[in-house]
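Deviations from the work plan: none for this task. Representative record:
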Amino acid sequence: MTFAEIGRFFEEHDCYTILTHKSPDGDTLGAGFGLCAYLRDMGKKANVVNADGFPDRYYFMYDDYTEQDFEEQCIIAVDIADPSLIGSALPQYMVPGKVDLCIDHHISNKYYAKQSYVDGSSSAACLILFELFKELGRPISDLIAACLYTGIATDTGCFKYENTTPQAHLAAAELIQYNFGYAFINRRMFDIKSKGRMAAEKFVTDNMEFYCNDKCALIALTTETMQSCGIEPAEFEGIASIPLSVEGVEIGITIKQRHEDVFKLSVRTTEKLDASAFCKQFGGGGHIRAAGCEIKGSLEDVEKQVRAAVEALGLCSDD
Amino acid sequence: MTFAEIGRFFEEHDCYTILTHKSPDGDTLGAGFGLCAYLRDMGKKANVVNADGFPDRYYFMYDDYTEQDFEEQCIIAVDIADPSLIGSALPQYMVPGKVDLCIDHHISNKYYAKQSYVDGSSSAACLILFELFKELGRPISDLIAACLYTGIATDTGCFKYENTTPQAHLAAAELIQYNFGYAFINRRMFDIKSKGRMAAEKFVTDNMEFYCNDKCALIALTTETMQSCGIEPAEFEGIASIPLSVEGVEIGITIKQRHEDVFKLSVRTTEKLDASAFCKQFGGGGHIRAAGCEIKGSLEDVEKQVRAAVEALGLCSDD
């Protein structure tokens, strides 16, 4: 689809449900609420839906949002590569061919929608929307700018990671001229930590183990340790970047217990290693620097397999 | 001075000493080594000078740098608002009228040089140089791009803080297209921590005290505590942002002992408070969200004065 075709699609339809992915992040919510505000500004009806609800963290996107009452006619998915990411709380949308239009930036997109606009080279779904709205020509509101900026900033680690394109910076140059507090948003997204979060980070830092001449840092979080340390499990969300933040570490691994004998691995690597390839051997996948997989077995088994896989990377020998 | 006049200045002079400020950061070094490479590419002779030497952290700027042998004819200061910031190890350059040209982005610039280009609205000295080089038209090398990018990124907290201008993003959009690893640089600048640094951060987190309904977080580091905790004092550099990173905190204060009865305050505030005004009452100053001052007295005295000043902000009453 071209941007002009998406523009015609918006003109021709009404009463939109906009799907965002489960465990929502800044990009899917920014794209969802940005597109919702854009469609409402066009005089259309639109709601945003998420299987897990809308977290407080992004409240500025939906502080003034109220759900509209209408009969759904059209379904758009934003930032959702695969229908399974819609979330099992919304089975009615996971049916093949149910989604009318998907706008996404994941190269792994499954093309499950009737029509798709996928740009795997784009830093964020919100960046695609920014460029779409710019081409369509209708002015965007401060709220839309705030939503799109948040998605671009969060998906690029505030323009830090290698997925930051010149286009991402060009979009930011325009968006920060709108009247919303981008510095306030960035502080909220990247700097502020609750005391519980600080405790969780300290717990990770204290309990990380180092292997392979300190080139691998690993933290294993069992249900029991997470319960016994007195920190809310939610505070351990997104701590996967901590092991890689130690100087000299080339691969950072977080092992989190999901069920009795099921462990979720989150792998982060420097430019020297391919996290996606690492996880693929355990049936997982993801991006080149950030990937994940699930391994079944006891923690002891899992750690043994993971350490063997790390050793096979050839990091451990002295340089 | 206009950019065209600076261009003529570069044409007309040779044998440059480029001064960077003491306790060097990414912006002064990026501007210094970026300008040095630019002048050398023009066929001029140029060296960069710093009172404290060049830290490992920014090694990629000077990995291939060798000092040139020449008789100094012209002195340029970059990112130096006040001659005292040149540093007492270089008294020969602190003499009034000694510096020929100053390029700076501090609104507090003292106009101590014979000629000055000061743009207080610019995010970084490196951003001024980027715009200067662009106007002058001579192509810049990958090394120059890496230096300028680093200065812009470090002075804006990787495009996070409110001093990030559209121009900073536009410059980044161009600079990241050069052949240098901006993601590698960002990881080095913003993510990687030594184990010593992690220990220092943990020490700060463990020992912070909260006042005024947790709206003020304060850490006091005496020479004795810094020595007894077994962490290198250098690891405590730049930890002033930690107190403000706690959710709900509006003013974060770091008190560090300088001498027996001299304490250095570093103050960081949210958009609700003026750090510069806070420090002014103790004879200091700085930026609106990041400022500093020195207070003489015992730690007890100093803490008492600081807490009184915090209480005077009117934060402490219940909302």
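Chain A touches chain B through 41 residues (CB under 8 Å).
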